[in-house]
């Protein structure tokens, strides 16, 4: 695995998560090292976002161990969890910008909440973060005035405001045009390298992800079914990986939902 | 049928428990609302100042109607000078807190639910939580206290405008004696028994409406339909809570 010499920042061991009797994830082993960009891929509803929530401490694992920066997430109280989250950044699917604040105030929000800085220093920091995502010129705009890609970039600037050690991305490419998609992809890679952080992104965009990440985990039905570097993934003979990477409509993930035989249903009582 | 009824009762009890736990958390994290006063002042502006127009205009009209109806009845018994007393007592004891509370729930309560509900739908609350900022302390508590502080002031202004409306009709238009109108009011209205009890009522209504509004927003299903249902529940539950609490408070406060 790339960067395996670096410190393991996120370490999941035999993690299981269930809502009551409904099992969402089971037997998850996942490691992310400092400096790495890791993608978690899989179809919709396979448990990818749940994995991110477990790492961020928004959910607690039903069994197993989730460690971030050497701390067991499940054993932390609210204060300790918040202290750890100050060292994490998260980009939500549609940015989740605060709609009553300008772009500047959105990026300044975590700094104002957690760092007691003079207003002049805060202004410089915010403008530098916006410069990093190419939107210094839009600091006075309101979120409603931004395109989807711009909103995602502002949210990214906000996520890195406190120079986090770990950045999580929930579907960072969803609904973006090809230019914005490329911009976000490059920003994820560049910012991760510049900050010396680790990044985990949940996505189903194969082409963009494989071009920027160091390692990929494939999740299906709540389990990790394949993992490897982008080269290993591209060369994989695994049926699931092949179907996913080549966007084939049928395979281990079937086109048809489980049902009784069609003849039985068409001619049976239910049809009448 | 029985199963449905059982599910409804269980759901109701569960929500009541959740709301109580929510109130406990609100109070626990209220310190920030007062330490960072600008957050609460902003909510007082949105809930209180922006509700002023509807409260003042409604208060005036209620006072005008009270003046007309009151005069019509009192003059039959030759006691039209007591119009000031009737208008003032009706407003400070009952109509001020109750009608202002109902208007406050429709104008400000629904807006608070919609705002928090939309923040939940667009993952803003989750984003805040992930930034190690407690959404109950940062979003819910200032809105709760903004409402609690605004409500008694709005009710007092409603009553004041109502009395002005009663004076306009009674004294300026009908010709009731001006001195008698004010002096009888002054003699009959007791600060502790009438005014303070009215303020206590409006404070209790403010707590109820604000709690319902922030809770419904925080607890809503994060979809467009979920937010719309939450707003409806805020208005309906607030109205029922105000009327029920009014009965309970009146039975303790004004027992003759």
What pattern of helices and strands is seen along the backbone of chain B?
HHHHHHHHHH
* Number of H/I helices of chain B: 10
Give the total of beta strands of chain A.
10
**What coarse outline of chain A follows from CA principal-axis ratios?**
globular
Q: What is the first-to-last residue Cα distance of chain B?
A: 46 Å
Briefly note the structural class of the backbone of chain A.
alpha/beta
Instruction: Write down how many β-strands of chain B occur, each being a DSSP E stretch of 2 or more residues.
Output: 0
Fraction in beta strands of chain B: under 5%
Share in helix of chain B: over 70%
Q: Can you tell me the residue ranges of chain A where pLDDT is under 50 for at least 5 consecutive residues?
A: none
CATH H-tier superfamily of chain A: P-loop containing nucleotide triphosphate hydrolases
Most strands sheet of chain A: 6 strands, mixed
Terminus-to-terminus distance of chain A: 57 Å
Q: Shape of chain B, please?
A: elongated
Low-confidence stretches of chain B: none
Q: Biggest interface, which chains?
A: A-B, 23 and 14 residues
Task: Give the biggest beta sheet of chain B.
Answer: none
Strand content of chain A: 15-25%
Membrane topology (chain B): Multi-pass membrane protein
GO molecular function (chain B): phospholipid transporter activity
Subcellular location (chain B): Cell inner membrane
Organism (chain B): Denitromonas halophila
């Amino acid at each position: 695995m790339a960067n395996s010499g670096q410190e393991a920042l996120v370490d999941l061991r035999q993690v299981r998560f269930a809502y009551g009797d409904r099992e969402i994830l089971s037997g998850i082993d996942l490691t992310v090292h400092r400096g790495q960009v890791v993608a978690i891929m899989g179809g919709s509803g396979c448990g990818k976002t749940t994995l991110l929530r477990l790492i961020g401490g928004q959910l607690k694992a039903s069994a197993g161990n989730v460690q971030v920066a050497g701390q067991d997430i499940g054993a932390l109280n609210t204060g300790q969890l918040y202290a750890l989250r100050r060292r994490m950044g998260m980009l939500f699917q549609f940015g989740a910008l605060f709609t009553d604040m300008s772009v500047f105030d959105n990026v300044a929000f975590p700094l104002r909440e957690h760092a007691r800085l003079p207003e002049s220093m805060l202004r410089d920091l915010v403008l530098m973060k916006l410069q990093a995502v190419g939107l210094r010129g839009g600091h006075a705009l309101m979120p409603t005035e931004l395109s989807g890609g711009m909103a995602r970039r502002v949210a990214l600037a906000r996520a890195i405001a406190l120079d986090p050690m770990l950045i999580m991305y929930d579907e960072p490419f969803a609904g973006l045009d090809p230019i914005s998609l490329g911009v976000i992809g490059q920003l994820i890679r560049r910012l991760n390298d510049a900050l010396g952080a680790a990044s985990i992104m949940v996505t189903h965009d194969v082409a963009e992800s494989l071009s920027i990440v160091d390692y990929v985990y494939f999740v299906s039905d709540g389990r990790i079914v394949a993992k490897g570097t982008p080269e290993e993934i591209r060369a994989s003979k695994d049926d699931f990986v092949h179907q996913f990477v080549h966007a084939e409509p049928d395979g281990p993930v079937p086109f048809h939902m489980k049902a009784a035989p069609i003849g039985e249903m068409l001619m049976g009582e239910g049809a009448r | 049928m029985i199963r449905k009824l059982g599910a409804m009762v269980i759901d109701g009890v569960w929500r009541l428990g959740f709301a109580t736990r929510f109130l406990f958390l609100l109070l626990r994290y209220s310190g920030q609302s007062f330490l960072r006063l600008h957050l609460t002042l902003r909510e007082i502006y949105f809930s209180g100042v922006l509700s002023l127009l509807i409260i003042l205009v409604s208060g005036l009209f209620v006072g005008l109607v009270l003046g007309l109806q009151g005069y019509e009845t009192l003059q039959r018994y030759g006691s039209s000078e007591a119009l000031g007393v009737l208008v003032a007592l009706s407003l400070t004891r009952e109509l001020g807190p109750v009608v202002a509370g109902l208007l406050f729930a429709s104008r400000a309560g629904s807006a608070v639910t919609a705002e928090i509900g939309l923040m939940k739908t667009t993952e803003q609350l989750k984003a805040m939580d992930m930034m190690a900022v407690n959404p109950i302390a940062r979003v819910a508590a200032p809105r709760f206290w903004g409402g609690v502080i605004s409500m008694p002031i709005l009710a007092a202004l409603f009553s004041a405008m109502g009395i002005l409306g009663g004076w306009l009709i009674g004294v300026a238009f009908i010709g009731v004696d001006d001195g008698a109108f004010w002096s009888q009011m002054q003699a009959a209205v007791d600060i502790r028994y009438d005014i303070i009890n009215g303020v206590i009522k409006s404070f209790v209504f403010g707590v109820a409406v604000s709690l319902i509004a922030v809770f419904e927003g925080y607890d809503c299903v994060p979809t467009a339909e979920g937010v719309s249902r939450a707003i409806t529940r805020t208005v309906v539950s607030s109205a029922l809570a105000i009327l029920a609490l009014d009965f309970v408070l009146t039975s303790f406060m004004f027992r003759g």
